[in-house]
Amino acid sequence: MLDDLAHPILLLGTFTTCKKTGLQKQPSFKFTNFTSIIPPFFIFKMGIIFDIKRFAVHDGPGIRTTVFMKGCPLSCQWCHNPESISAAICTVPKTVRIGNKTFTENEIVGREMTVEEVMKELCREKIFMEETGGGVTFSGGEPLQQADFLQEMLNACKAERMHATVDTSGFSSWKTLEKIAENTDLFLYDLKLIDDALHKTYTGVSNKLMLENLEKLLEKGKKVRIRIPAIPGITFTEVNIQQTLNYLSKLKFKVEGVDLLPYHNTASHKYERFGLEYKLGELKTIKKTDLAETKQRFEKAGFEVKIGG
Description:
By secondary structure, the chain is α/β, with parallel strands linked by helices.
């Protein structure tokens, strides 16, 4: 079994050697802080995580803990987490001000974590999840970029009876997404632009695979909420809103609802820190009130709609 693992390193327990034969015996494992036994092979899987956000209220139902995973195949011009695009762990300068003095120090973005390490973090918040109907949300980046690790995390969440949500663009092979869907309770599915040419221009990839995978998930009976980022002049246009409404209305299987996500430019400073170009420049932030009419249009078509997730 060890040959099939991403990182065949024993993290808990050690090999022992038989005095008679000189052969190594399988190690014993010790688990702590778990309400149920998680199979030992989970601890070998490693993922690259750049943040774990507690008490999240916009990433699915109830109070949630959101695990942000590095790596994304898209290059959305409005991305709020540019540090997540590269799958690699990186070091960037960070300015710290103490009183009248300013210091620059290096910050490491991303760290390798085992399934067990992440689960220890999640189990600390389990009481809040249970009391509010919350759970765990895997976001990014694009969590499907670390599909093997994500699958083991979902298996571990199921063993702990934690509601699991995956926030995704759906940009992956169907074979990968189908496996992930097995233990996913809810998908938060990005739907940015219906026009494929515009989708390529603003995200760097075609939307055909994403739309195909969305329809396949719905056909399998999976729960899916659509997330539409409202970017002025790009996704938040009369043409795109109407095209999106038409597309969703014609789906054979209905989605759980629609989240309208107002654009804000608070991430612009991140681009400067990471030496990246922020192509949207001085684009103005959208207020929730700006989306009220759009919300009514989707509700009139029969969709349950939230502004801000």
